[in-house]
Amino acid sequence: MGREFWLRKAAVLDRIALAEEVTYAPEVAAPAIETAEEAAGWLADFDHTHHTTHGPGKPLLTPPGRSYRPYVRQEYLAWIKTQTES
């Protein structure tokens, strides 16, 4: 799978998790949040391995225990900008 696949997958799962966080109790939203975290990690790993980061933050400079979801948002924003400029 290519970067665009992982980026778009991580972005949609992040949006689902955000919606569930504000809609449901923490224990109900937890599976969506965990799935979004896992997908964000996949994207960060892909970008680190392939040197494909487009935003200012680097994927594996995040200290352990912090979320990669903000990284997904940064990268999705950079990707969307390139799509609209084309």
UniProtKB/TrEMBL annotation:
<protein>
    <submittedName>
        <fullName>Uncharacterized protein</fullName>
    </submittedName>
</protein>
